[in-house]
Design goal:
Oligomer: homotetramer
Helix content of chain A: 55-70%
Order of helices and strands of chain A: HHHHHHHHH
Mean pLDDT of chain A: 83
Strand content of chain A: under 5%
Number of helices of chain A: 9
Number of strands of chain A: 0
Radius of gyration of chain A: 19 Å
Shape of chain A: elongated
Distance between the termini of chain A: 38 Å
Largest sheet of chain A: none
Structural class of chain A: mainly alpha
DNA sequence: TCGTAAGCGAGACGGTACGTCGCGTCTTGTG
DNA sequence: CACAAGACGCGACGTACCGTCTCGCTTACGA
């Protein structure tokens, strides 16, 4: 999702990559993404706005989607960490509410959509996206495991299926947009998951 | 999703549209889609392979996604009609099983994905896709309504939420591909929906 | 030196090439050539100034030099035809005087130079240039032949060598620019050629 | 034509320039020039093949043509010195024969052509080339002057015009390549020059 | 039966963006 | 300080498709 060799060989020969250029590119991408949308976004335009050679961008990201991925990560700095209130049900409700709120911010929906779109077209980026998705699943998985250990959730539930039941409808509405992603829907999702899997 | 004025003015002036050209275009699209993937698909390439002028394609479909939509329809002839066995639960299980089976056919997944991708980029096509999605939802809605009337399902369920719980995870796995769309998952989905909403 | 298939199949399939675009390209080339010089001339710049797609230029000329060739031909409309005054010596003097005068016009020297430069780098264009050069030699060859027939020049001269003795120093001074191409030099060249080959 | 400050301050501060690098650059240039031609020659390519930083080349030569000039000098070690046999006519014949022979060596023609091409595009290099050309003219000028003093050539000839009559056709055939640069042509050139200017 | 209106293939058109190359300059660490 | 390595801003390259626009030619209806 990010520049390709983040923390590799600490010193390789030649001039090191400019962090200034790096930041300028990411900023320009966010700008264009939220202003004109994914369509208007091109390596050409990003280079122009960032005051950077196209090569400098290609050196770091190999596709538009990968670039947008970095910009998205930049946009959603707050990472919705595991709340861990001690109550698994409360944790789930909190996490979902935050997720559904963050998605209201302008540009976030567009970014997520463009990433899914890119993933359908570029298998390499699909892998990267899967990695990102998995990291989000892991947070919920942790909450569920904790809930089971604490006896707050029944022991025989299948976490992965449960997670699909939460994130599935979330992405579904996000992508198809046949219905809003509001806090009521967030609550409903948790309710149904708990009724299905909880004690 | 299809050629844009299917059953319009039954007879309009001038030379009628060539069904030969029409078929050649769809065939070429399916060919390219399953052979080289969505990436290699372009109006230019389709026209070349079909031996057809670009204009002739533009006259019928206004976007790549719309064109792929036609190809998809071509591929999935069977349209998963409402089973109506008399038992709502049996109907649901049957429908889901068919849905999950159809998606195994080569090219179908690719077509669905490309359509979702296109929808993220082209609002007009998003509307078309939403129409298609809605038609699929309507089938389930009918089953659910029938189940309630017959007393097979409890009366206070919200059909649309229930549908989200089924189709959500379906699309989620289809698009993210983090887990397979097998018949076991189909069964699990119906189980959870029923446990959540059924009596 | 010109667009590649001048008077071929009078009607080939598809939209015919636009003469408007053609002229716009040539004009833009002449403009840029005489204004900013050969260096500043690029397909990119010509396309921009002519309001034309780059492809449209590439379709007609395959290299910068070939393009400049067309522009040059456009610039030197007057083609220094065979004078044929009845007197071979007079003809030669007249032709040379005209040649040396035409080369004074701004841009002509630059165009000729750039063509020679391109010919050194691109064998294909070298062939084209050779064709142009040969056409100029033919004019002189005709004059000489006529002079021999009329008994104005002695019979045993070798026309091609004689022509080398005239055009050789001409191009030499044109390219190296170590001395001016003035009318005195023109006269001297004819004098020496005649002293060397005449009766 | 050569490295720009050959015999400058014999000892200047800092690390002295590596003669190893210098030679590697020239060798790589000759290699590329004779192998892939002038087109494939670029500072970038030379640096890569020589295993040298681009800067190191720029430090020594300021243009592609200047660099090729050095390579040319490397290729043509023998410099065709003034023969001075005592007989001006014999001297001229000898010099021309040598000149026409040297040009047969592979790569020499290409180098000369590329230098002329570069001179048409880069005024600075044109000056350098003019300097080189003048040095070659000076040799002939000396022979002619000596011939006049010795009474072997008539006193009223204009040396510079005479030289144009020899070198002009030489370069003409070299650059346009409409006819070969063989020894017969060498002889013919001297013959005609003498008939034109000699007693 | 014949005009006329649209469809047809081909392919050129003005564009935008692509991904690459080379330029000449700059910044690293190493000698 | 020179050197190799290589990143940098830049500008041009030649190509791919876009969606539109002629061409000359069917095709088929309705006047």
């Amino acid at each position: 999702m990010d520049a390709d060799e983040e923390a590799q060989t600490p010193a390789r020969p030649g001039r090191p990559r400019s962090t200034v250029a790096h930041q300028a590119i990411v900023d320009a991408t966010v700008d264009l993404l939220t202003t004109d949308g994914y369509q208007a976004l091109s390596f050409e335009a990003v280079a122009a706005r960032a005051g950077v050679g196209k090569r400098t961008i290609y050196r770091r990201w190999k596709s538009k989607g990968a670039l947008v991925g970095a910009a998205y990560t930049e946009m959603v700095q707050r990472r919705h960490p595991d709340p861990d209130t001690g109550d698994a049900v409360k944790d789930l409700r909190l996490l979902l509410r935050r997720l559904f709120t963050s998605v209201q911010a302008p540009g976030v929906t567009a970014a997520l959509r463009s990433m899914v779109a890119e993933a359908q077209l570029d298998p390499d980026f699909a892998t990267e996206l899967r990695r990102f998705v998995e990291s989000r699943r892991e947070v919920v998985r942790t909450i569920l495991r904790r809930g089971i250990e604490r006896g707050q959730l029944r022991a025989d539930l299948d976490p992965d299926t449960a997670i699909d039941l939460v994130f599935g409808p979330y992405w579904y509405r996000l992508l198809i947009a046949h219905a809003p992603l509001d806090s009521r829907f967030a609550a409903t999702l948790v309710d149904h998951m708990l009724r299905g899997i909880g004690q």
